[in-house]
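Hi team,

As requested, here is the filled-out complex form for the adenosine-5'-diphosphate run. I kept the field names the same as last time so the parser does not choke. Let me know if anything looks off before we queue the next batch.

— J.
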Amino acid sequence: MSTAIVVTSGKGGTGKTSVTGGLASCLAGLGHRVLCIDMDIGLRNLDLSLGMSDRALMDFTDVVEGRCSLSRAVVEHPTVRDLFLLTAPLTPRPIGEFAMRELIREAKQNYDFILMDSPAGLGSGFRLALCAADRAIVVSTTDPSALRDAQRTVTEIRSALPGRIHLVMNRVQPKLMKKLHTTIDDAMNTAGLPLLGVIPEDPAVTLAAGKGTPLILFTRKGAAIACLNTAKRLMGQSVPVMRIR
Ligand code: ADP
Ligand code: MG
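And here is what came back:
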């Protein structure tokens, strides 16, 4: 069965795009057909994180407005089999929720996982992704303001996706957490969510994106392995949470 997942956070810069790209390439590597949709209208950058910079000519509005088919607008990753991208338009356009749901319904016939990278905030791009989602991943850092925004996001989406919202803690630095006198448990309590993954602060995330290489092909340690474990949990496997030193 196919699952559409919105990756969101409230606050910008928590790592939504990096986590979407990281999870997508791992899920594809684990044998699934994965479609990533960039919902960050005007500020798209999921192509960079996936190493598919400027490959897409058509975007999701071309599909919902009938200018081209879904299969024509979707581009395949040059090296990772079964990884696909549908990009966002560069200029804002009014898109109806019905049309978005139809697009996702069609995509579900062809892909096992559909990951929607939503923009920061609770605006139209976020709502569009949410309306078509079966599950949500809220990405937060341990920063108190990121956690507060995560909590607000959860309040907004809880009724739409009851019991289907999970937390990914990103950019985790144990030394900083000690100074903040906080733990992952505190973060889960603040966000009010069960944990799907813990991803360490790791320069490889930015270096891989800079090189246009999916994180899991760039390195096999740190954030890359944390993404792999998180992808396995998304598939329903039980994998212990990584100890971050
Ligand atoms: P968002 O989509 O939430 O705005 P991005 O994924 O674009 O956030 O990430 C913002 C910045 O943080 C990028 O430069 C990215 O490379 C960096 N980043 C994200 N996750 C990590 C991580 N785990 N370790 C180090 N840098 C990270
Ligand atoms: Mg982003």
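Two things worth flagging: Residues 9, 12-18, 120, 170-171, 199, 201-202, 205-206, 209, 223 surround adenosine-5'-diphosphate (ligand 1) (CB under 6 Å). The longest strand covers residues 165-172.

Thanks,
J.
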